[in-house]
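Good morning N.,

You mentioned wanting to compare the apo and holo forms, so I went ahead and generated the holo version with cytidine-5'-diphosphate. This is what I fed in:
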Amino acid sequence: MDEFMPRGAIMVEKTLAIIKPDAVKKKLAGKIIQRIEDEDFKISGLKMLHLTREEAEGFYIIHKDKHFYNSLTDFMSSGEIVIMVLEGENAISHWRKVMGATDPALAEPGTLRHAFGSSIEQNSTHGSDSPSTAEWEIDYFYK
Ligand code: CDP
Ligand code: MG
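and this is what came out, ligand included:
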């Protein structure tokens, strides 16, 4: 936020959102998109993809040294995913709040990960975590 932005100003942001392979396989894509619309996000991009292992590795390159990287990129390339660009006021934190904590066991009732996640890896949805990450992630799929 720059110094000329008045405190409390409305920040219209964009975030990348992904419906992960576990949720697509369980036919939860429709319910998740309905929730996104009910939350009043504007969906300004939407497509279904099946990532190659290399594309999944590139997307999660920030986690390349983590113990879960191999398994995560295997999972993310295991089936179709739905990619979306969501727009709205504080879209990044709003979407992360709707998803809930990374680990579904810790996610609050009412969140997508609480409702639909089955493990810390297979947690139904992805969201960007900052404006710079959102820009990089949107660019990754919409060059
Ligand atoms: O997705 P989020 O930003 O909440 O979490 P992250 O720390 O950026 O991790 C990215 C993804 O890696 C998570 O959404 C999980 O699918 C997976 N993960 C995992 O498999 N095991 C962990 N201990 C942490 C994350
Ligand atoms: Mg993350």
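Residues 129 surround magnesium ion (ligand 2) (CB under 6 Å).

Happy to go through it together on a call whenever suits you.

Best,
F.
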